């Protein structure tokens, strides 16, 4: 509960006068202004603490600056007046002592503490919402220190762990580029990119300027760090999968039926992000629809299931409680099965490719605005966002078109949309 404010009074600061100041009522404080030095004041709280401040306007904005580190009587009246005059002179020069103090404090801020504050206070620019817990956990893991396992083996630690205790204001371009180069060898391109995305965001969050900033487009290209976009499947493997779609689909269905193989087929038929089906509960399946809750763009997304996708969902829901997961598997299990698939048709494959596969097929079969809706993408187009509305039947037909095309290609009953060169 904030303290109640009491009225102010102007007095001559003397030892006798300050010693005799009465205590305000509990929960309140009183401010007294010095008649000798304009701007100097002393604030008295209900517990008897007496603190000197300078109160003035800096560039038109009111600012209260604490005088020294001690309270009265450790800080004497003469000392307070002397320090107050120095602060007032600084303010008269257009400088903000409070801002300078904040900057000095920030200069000792380590990357680890800066990231902690960033993930707590950062709001997404697109919707003003705080970062999702999963995003926060992922960022914090990037700074996780190396440790010894039970077998005595040392873990790699997060890609930013070596910078965790470094003051962010002392980071240099060479240091950042060196860490990135080492991370590419130690952690791979994806983790290295995630680390640089976070570091770039934190530096921007604190307004830190670095000489020859490796993230600045105005820095020479040879001195810049080029960050790979995350979440996008590589182009060539997806193109290869598109031209071998029929044999890949047949190979998938030749495997023993399981929750994992059904999950992979479900991704191809719906265009979901790989993590989204893993959160679906049996109770989310209602009348041929599944509602994906709090997706990447923070909106719910309704899947209007094709006949093929519905059959998969109903098969995996059979005999389960409403609170059970529809696909009780882990990403690791999905990746294990993915490694079995290439050996059959010779198609390189990872589950992440299926969202791109779905979009590429749908792009040839439905309108652009319908495709955006199927993919759960927020449209930047004023026309799409404010005027175009899609009925359920249109969206259901679009999902069905993609599913029918995949099955037709697998059965050699249709001319493929994509051919080998």
Count up the helices. Answer: 16
Arrangement of strands in the largest sheet:
1-2-3-4-5
Number of strands: 8
CATH class of the largest domain: Mainly Alpha
GO molecular function: DNA binding
Pfam family, one: Arm-DNA-bind_3
InterPro entries: DNA_brk_join_enz (IPR011010), Integrase-like_cat_sf (IPR013762), Integrase_catalytic (IPR002104), Integrase_DNA-bd_sf (IPR038488), Integrase_DNA_bind_dom (IPR025166), Phage_Integrase (IPR050808)
Domain Tyr recombinase: 263-391
Question: How would you summarize what this structure contains?
Answer:
InterPro entries: DNA_brk_join_enz (IPR011010), Integrase-like_cat_sf (IPR013762), Integrase_catalytic (IPR002104), Integrase_DNA-bd_sf (IPR038488), Integrase_DNA_bind_dom (IPR025166), Phage_Integrase (IPR050808). This protein has 16 helices and 8 strands.
Features:
disordered N terminus; 8 strands; three-stranded antiparallel sheet; elongated; alpha+beta; hpI Integrase, Chain A
Structural description of this entry:
By secondary structure, the protein is of the alpha+beta class. The chain folds into three domains: 4-106, 2-Layer Sandwich (Double Stranded RNA Binding Domain); 111-148 and 156-223; 235-410, hpI Integrase, Chain A (Orthogonal Bundle). Helix content is 43%, strand content 11%. It contains 16 helices and eight strands. It has helices at 15-19, 77-92, 97-107, 111-121, 133-141, 173-186, 188-205, 235-243, 245-254, 259-270, 307-317, 331-340, 353-365, 368-374, 382-386, 392-410, and strands spanning 4-11, 28-34, 40-45, 50-58, 61-66, 285-286, 289-292, 301-304. A five-stranded mixed β-sheet has the order 1-2-3-4-5, covered by helices on one side. Strands 6-7-8 form a three-stranded antiparallel β-sheet. Strand 7 and strand 8 (301-304) form a beta hairpin. The radius of gyration is 31 Å and the shape is elongated. The relative contact order is 0.07. Residues 1-6 have low confidence and may be disordered.
């Amino acid at each position: 509960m904030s303290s109640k404010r009491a009225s102010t009074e102007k007095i001559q600061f003397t030892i006798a006068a300050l010693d005799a100041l009465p205590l305000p009522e509990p929960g309140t404080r009183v401010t007294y202004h010095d008649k000798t030095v304009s701007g100097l004041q002393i604030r008295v709280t209900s517990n008897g603490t007496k603190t000197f401040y300078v109160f003035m306007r800096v560039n038109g904005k009111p600012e209260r600056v604490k005088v020294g580190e001690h309270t009265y009587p450790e800080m004497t009246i003469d000392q307070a007046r002397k320090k107050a005059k120095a602060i007032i002179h600084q303010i008269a020069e257009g400088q903000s002592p409070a801002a300078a103090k904040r900057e000095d404090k920030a200069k000792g801020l380590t990357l680890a503490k800066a990231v902690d504050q960033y993930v707590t206070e950062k709001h997404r620019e697109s919707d003003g919402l705080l970062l999702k817990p999963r995003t926060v956990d992922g960022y914090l893991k990037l700074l996780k220190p190396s440790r010894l396992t039970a077998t005595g083996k040392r873990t790699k630690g997060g890609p930013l762990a070596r910078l965790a205790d470094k003051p962010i204001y002392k980071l240099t371009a060479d240091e950042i580029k060196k860490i990135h180069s080492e991370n590419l060898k130690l952690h791979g391109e994806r983790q290295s990119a995630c680390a640089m995305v976070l570091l770039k965001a934190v530096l921007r969050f604190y307004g830190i300027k670095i000489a020859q900033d490796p993230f600045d487009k105005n820095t020479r290209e040879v001195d810049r760090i080029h960050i790979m976009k995350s979440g996008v499947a590589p182009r060539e493997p997806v193109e290869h999968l598109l031209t071998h779609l029929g044999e890949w689909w047949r190979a998938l269905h030749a495997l023993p039926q399981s929750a994992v193989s059904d999950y992979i087929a479900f991704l191809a038929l719906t265009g979901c992000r790989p993590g989204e089906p893993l959160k679906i509960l049996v109770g989310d399946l209602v009348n041929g629809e599944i509602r994906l809750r709090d997706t990447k763009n923070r909106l719910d997304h309704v899947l209007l299931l094709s006949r093929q996708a519905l059959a998969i969902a109903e098969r995996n829901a059979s005999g389960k409680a409403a609170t059970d997961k529809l696909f009780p598997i882990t990403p690791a299990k999905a990746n294990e099965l993915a490694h079995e698939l290439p050996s059959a048709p010779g198609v390189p494959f990872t589950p992440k490719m299926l969202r791109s596969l779905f979009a590429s097929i749908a792009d040839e079969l439905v309108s652009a605005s319908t495709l955006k809706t199927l993919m759960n993408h927020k449209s930047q187009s004023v026309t799409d966002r404010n005027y175009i509305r899609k009925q359920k039947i249109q969206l259901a037909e679009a999902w069905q078109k993609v599913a029918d095309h995949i099955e037709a290609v697998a059965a050699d009953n249709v001319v493929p949309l994509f051919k080998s060169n």
